[in-house]
Amino acid sequence: MEFDRPFEQLPRGIRNNNPGNIRHSPTKWRGQLADQSADDAFVQFEHPIYGLRAMARILMTYQRKHGLKTIRAIVNRYAPPVENDTDAYARHVAKEIAVGLDYEIDLAAEREAFATVLRTMVRHENGEQPYPDFFFDDAITLAAAS
Q1: Is the pLDDT assigned to residue 27 strictly greater than 80?
Q2: Is-contact 41 24, C-beta < 8 A?
Q3: Which residue from 120, 131, 68 is spatially nearest to 94, judged by alpha carbons?
Q4: Distance between CA 38 and CA 79 in Å, rounded?
């Protein structure tokens, strides 16, 4: 991807191809770079599609494994209040999909809303959202497949 400014000036999540700012963990993500030494806190991916896929997988796991259904619950787990203004984050996501904070979203059934959730979270995490819409569609497809 090409950007209108030097690579070093891009937000950390965009530089890492990790627009969801997923932290290092024991999970070995598809598309994760073998050498993770460039950032000691956040995963680096080969391409942003893999970072978006990982983000989608995390949100799908929140629903499937942890039963989190509302925008408020999903964002609260993804961006805990100890390090984020979680209420503002959740309000931002809910506003973009035109629902309330306690709307129960079915990520598997509401694909367009899911893509909007991801786009909004990328914007919230990075202060910008530079990716084309098809990246989100592809990431959701990849996340659902495995």
Answers
A1: yes
A2: yes
A3: 120
A4: 23
From the CA atom positions of the chain, what is the Rg in Å? 14
DSSP 21: -
Q: Which CA distances in Å does 83 have to 8, 75, 78, 80?
A: 24, 12, 11, 6
Cα within 13 Å of Cα(106), Cβ side: 3
CA distances from 24 to 28, 43, 67, 87 (A): 9, 5, 24, 24
* Distance of alpha carbon 31 from alpha carbon 69, whole angstroms: 28
Return phi, psi of residue 32, to 5°: -70, 135
Separation CA 54–CA 74 (nearest Å): 15
Residues 30-68: tens digit of each pLDDT = 999 999 999 999 999 999 999 999 999 999 999 999 999
Please give the structure tokens belonging to residue 22: 């997923």
Name the pTM for this structure: 0.95
Question: How far apart are alpha carbons 21 and 107 in whole angstroms?
Answer: 20
Summarised one tens digit per residue, pLDDT across range 80-120 is 999 899 999 999 999 999 999 999 999 999 999 999 999 99
